[in-house]
């Protein structure tokens, strides 16, 4: 997929399951929790925690009951740990290409401010970003139009793109605002995997890509 970029182009990205796999954040958090409550044998606990998660058992409840820890403390650790996560292949190549053409890059993501900003920091992309919109910080979540209108107010442009993954909520607002919408197809690890339920016109993106190697910045 070719995207023509110049100084008036604004390319906006979702974060979770778009720039990296959110499942890796979960695994990173479980590891941090396991290391904190069972430092001498954390691997066995981590293995059990992830297995419980895969079996849809409440992991926080299990750890809280087993180690006599408040669930709130575990959730706090989950949300506030320093994540060990990595960008998908070719994301930085795309970012570099956009910047080389004087384009603008932004993020629109749902979640808590501390958690989402820690992810962005760990991914090493803060210096690329011209604007970051996080739902907790502005008091609304996708598909609210205001999350995307905040980008338009912050960065003037003639063409806006939104690249994301979740057909349930990601493309409704940008489609309504006349943006170009692009969906990254689930690689088999996405947290949200019920895309087949949301195939009406307002939910569907204009384009699909399998990975970032398909994006050609011209």
UniProtKB/TrEMBL annotation:
Q: Spell out the SUPFAM superfamilies in the cross-references.
A: HAD-like
Q: Which Pfam families match?
A: HAD_2 (PF13419)
Q: Which Gene3D superfamilies match?
A: 1.10.150.520, HAD superfamily/HAD-like (3.40.50.1000)
Coiled-coil regions in this chain?
A: none
Q: Name one GO molecular function term.
A: hydrolase activity
Q: Which InterPro entries match?
A: HAD-like_hydrolase (IPR051400), HAD-like_sf (IPR036412), HAD-SF_hydro_IA (IPR006439), HAD_2 (IPR041492), HAD_sf (IPR023214)
Q: Which cofactor does it need?
A: Mg(2+)
Q: Recite the UniProt keywords alphabetically.
A: Hydrolase, Magnesium, Metal-binding
Which protein are we looking at?
HAD family hydrolase
What taxonomic ancestry is recorded? Bacteria, Pseudomonadati, Bacteroidota, Flavobacteriia, Flavobacteriales
